[in-house]
């Protein structure tokens, strides 16, 4: 996922007065300056043949993770954008691990001091999910993280992954995502994250049900139930998310 520095800075300019103080956003009226950076170095990570990119910048080192150096640099550039918006995320050589039951890759960054873990089928996708979470934190003050143990259990149909969310005011809630594969399930979780960023309420799918050739998914959110239908777990999930207003 490519994050535009211009987009993040525009979001801050529009919503600066509403940002939580804990996010360390510069005060209203102050100038948000681009960082000056020097060289980028690379380290081999300890798991899943991953690469860690580290760029030395005026505000501190910026990190990115990917399977290849190119993917790590692309991820790093996204984190540069959110760091300019006040969310600084760090990583290390052991920041990628294999998930529960050997399913998926888990990437963990420490963003403004808090561990933020996301899941993907590859370290690159998992790291980009963390970037997606950090971008949401810069925009709304809310963010989510998956547990290294307990975020996934085997399903009869598809995959379902859980995240715990919180905001700067101390509110906490739980979400999950459901899909036909690892990445589609976590993509759904990111949509639920954005949906609940201001609602700060639990929002989760129950296991998918197969009726003949049609899958049914049930999303409980905002005190309501949204039932989705489709020829795959993902399409049924997308139907439920659309009804709930997630995007």
Topology:
Blueprint: H1 5-15, E1 37-44, E2 51-57, E3 62-66, H2 69-84, E4 89-90, E5 96-98, E6 105-111, E7 114-120, H3 123-140, E8 142-145, E9 159-167, E10 172-179, H4 182-196, E11 203-205, E12 209-211, E13 214-221, E14 224-230, H5 233-244
Antiparallel strand pairs: 1-2, 2-3, 4-6, 5-6, 6-7, 8-9, 9-10, 11-13, 12-13, 13-14
Helix pairs in contact: 1-2, 2-3, 3-4, 4-5
Counting H and I runs of at least 4 residues, what is the number of helices?
A: 5
Order of helices and strands: HEEEHEEEEHEEEHEEEEH
Distance between the termini: 15 Å
Question: Major sheet, described briefly?
Answer: 4 strands, antiparallel
Tell me the total number of β-strands: 14
Low-confidence stretches: 1-32
Question: Could you explain how this protein is built, in words?
Answer:
- The chain is α+β, with helices and mostly antiparallel strands and 247 residues long.
- Helix content is 29%, strand content 33%.
- It is built from five helices and 14 strands.
- It has helices at residues 5-15, 69-84, 123-140, 182-196, 233-244; strands at 37-44, 51-57, 62-66, 89-90, 96-98, 105-111, 114-120, 142-145, 159-167, 172-179, 203-205, 209-211, 214-221, 224-230.
- The strands form four sheets. Strands 4, 5, 6 and 7 form a four-stranded antiparallel sheet that branches. Strands 11, 12, 13 and 14 form a four-stranded antiparallel sheet that branches. Strands 1-2-3 form a three-stranded antiparallel sheet.
- Helix 1 packs parallel to helix 2 (69-84) and helix 4 (182-196) packs parallel to helix 5.
- The longest helix is centred in the middle third of the chain and has 18 residues, at 123-140.
- The chain is globular and about 55 Å long.
